[in-house]
């Protein structure tokens, strides 16, 4: 499966270098039962052994078993359209949430398309999530230049420029959506010369809780 292939790529020798531009909710405000956001779709150029991605995530221990249920929409599948700097932009909404009955963790696209799930019976350590987050990562062989992240540009407040997440929410035990506040978040940017992340809070309009992330990459260190 593509997800398992990507996990193996990350852990496969030779050692890879990972760079981050992410934002997470502190575990002190959890536990969490879901996370979602709409991200703009870009096609950063990568070479063999490299990755550049945007993602939402939950954290509470290792997971390596995923049950694919949708033959048409699957992890690692291609997008027909990708965004360009200055427009047009294309986006998709992805969510990871726990079903309150089965306790399985489901991945949905556009809030309605079920892709598959992580089985609850296999993961006693994932009854809830300690952390949830949004942002981007690059992965490259040690000693090589990092690929770009997102559009390849730093956040600047213009949503036609840097890659973004809009309508970002988390779910608590009530299973209702809540937007993250500044006092709840922690940013992880390992090399500000290469990548950045800016959280704007709730801008209302057509983006609500949102952030931008990304950058040109290059010589970012190991």
UniProtKB/TrEMBL annotation:
Pfam families: Neprosin (PF03080). It comes from the Eukaryota. Residues 1-221 form the Neprosin PEP catalytic domain. This is Neprosin PEP catalytic domain-containing protein. It comes from Phaseolus angularis.
